[in-house]
Amino acid sequence: MAQYRRKKNKDLTKKIAEERIVILLALAEDNFKTHPDRTKRYVGLARTISMRSRVRLTRDQKRRICKHCYSWLVPGNNCRIRLKGSTVLTACHVCGKMSYYPYYERPDAEKETEGQKELKRNTEAEIKVETKTGIEAEIKAGIEAKTEIETETEN
Ligand SMILES: [Zn+2]
């Protein structure tokens, strides 16, 4: 019984920790412009909670935090992101250090060649034209039928 309760509490702790991390990082984002001095504190608290409760930061969360100085990074504002070969380079303007993240090309199955894209575009355009003419023909037929009915009633 005691064991069960402990497990249940552990899950709950993790859930609460996740929520708090999300809230703190949202606060960091909100206060970045108005109170930039607060962001480091929010990030610090989020990290502390993450470590203490052993909840990992998600990939997106991790990449918005400088690995070296724990600043909240806003691309185009206090960090520069560039792609080089198969790595993402993030340069932090607060501490001037770089972070490297690997990135991979999508598997071949998902990749579309330029020729396939062109074909897809053409077929899509054709379908559009077809549907348009189809609708026009329908409207025309409708008008014709209507006029026919009208002429019939007149007679
Ligand atoms: Zn930094």
UniProtKB/TrEMBL annotation:
This is Ribonuclease P protein component 4. Zn(2+) binds at C66, C69, C92, C95. It comes from Methanimicrococcus hacksteinii. Keywords: Cytoplasm, Endonuclease, Hydrolase, Metal-binding, Nuclease, tRNA processing, Zinc. Belongs to the eukaryotic/archaeal RNase P protein component 4 family. The lineage of its organism: Archaea, Methanobacteriati, Methanobacteriota, Stenosarchaea group, Methanomicrobia. InterPro entries: RNP4, Rpr2/Snm1/Rpp21. Binds 1 zinc ion per subunit. Its main location: cytoplasm. The keyword Cell membrane does not apply. PANTHER family: RIBONUCLEASE P PROTEIN SUBUNIT P21 (PTHR14742:SF0), RIBONUCLEASE P SUBUNIT P21 (PTHR14742). Its cofactor is Zn(2+).
